[in-house]
Amino acid sequence: MRQFDLAIVGAGIMGLAHAYHAANAGLRVAVFERDAFADGASRRNFGMLALVAQSPGRQLRSAERSLACWQDLARNANVALHQAGCLFLARTPEELSVMSECQNASSTQDARFELVPPDALPDHAAVLNPKRALGGLWSPDAWKVDQRLAMGQIAGWLQSAHSVAFFTQTEVLGIAEGIVETSGGTFKAGHTVVCGGDEFGTLFPDAFRHAQVGRCRLQMMRTRPQPKGWRLPPFLLGGLSLTRYEAFAACPSLPQLKAHQEKNRPDHMAHGIHVILAQEADGSVTIGDSHAYDGNWSAESSDEIDRLILEEALALVDLPEPEIAERWIGHYAHLSGEDALIVRPDPNVTLVTMTNGQGMTHGFAVAEDVIRTVFD
Question: Of 329, 348, 219, 209, nearest to 271 (Cα)?
Fold first, then answer.
């Protein structure tokens, strides 16, 4: 029976983050993935390390710790990473007011923001839709990862550089008293960390049920590659994002903006839509997303939600090739008021699930704390 110091269930970003820290600590690590590769939320996102979205203090420090790990992987594992920055575009006075307050507050906070007048917006993105743009808010604190390749690159490096054992297409059937039963055999582990994302039903369902964790479902899409030479360097967001991110929570006029949005954008608000655009290495543009919680959704994707997302996106940027090549539905675990769920259902087992949809931004910091706690 093969024996490891740490067994990890799930090869998404949370599983890989735990493997990264455990391997750096010199532990013998095995990662079990039931599919050929992780194809859930870790790949179905914007590839955004959103330091810009964090509230100053604990949240921002967590994101900065994770960024340092991504930078290490960029140097050593050939993970594509660059500082894209982030531009919020204001199209109403209410949005501009919140952006102005955020800039004024940033001089005494950790985050960095700069209010951008309309005539300077093209300096950050020349492809913006200029209609009704009143200005913008710029921050350099957003990094772009190639989310479609990063998981494979990290796994390959962990395997080659740290001898982490990967067992793909291997389902974990049960964990008890240091024994990990899988579809590929039985293993022994000093400790097991379960990083199953929003998969609550297979292993330790009672622990998840007791924690009252739920799911968030979102809709996203991606265009065909845009013409050569068309570039959207930063992440581009609109005013709907201001009422969703903790970075703006302390702005005095935020309640007025939310009331304005609920009155004038009721459909967007009802579906939890805030639009992010991110251009990928092949020239395509990832666009999203909506948010529906705890089963409050239909079985199929909604054409109306896709229409609302695309309508908002095209109000922010001129897309020469707006045809959508790919649509998908994503899910992640959600627990109101909590960034991460960490549960010990057994002395030798820890369940770790990001519950704020920001595993790419915070995953390495959360995993580092778990590994330190478990292995003293």
Answer: 219
**CATH code assigned to 2-46+148-211+337-374:** 3.50.50.60
Per domain, the residue ranges of the chain are: 2-46+148-211+337-374, 86-139+214-334
Tell me the CATH architecture of domain 86-139+214-334.
2-Layer Sandwich (3.30)
pLDDT of residue 258: 97
The pLDDT of 296-317, averaged and rounded, is 88
CATH topology match: 2-46+148-211+337-374 vs 86-139+214-334: no
- The answer to pTM > 0.85 is yes
Please state, in angstroms and as integers, the Cα–Cα distance from residue 172 to each residue in 186, 363, 374, following that order. 9, 22, 21
Q: 114-133 pLDDT, tens per residue?
A: 999 999 999 999 999 877 78
| Three-class SS state of 222 | strand
Nearest CA to 177 among 163, 161, 188? 188
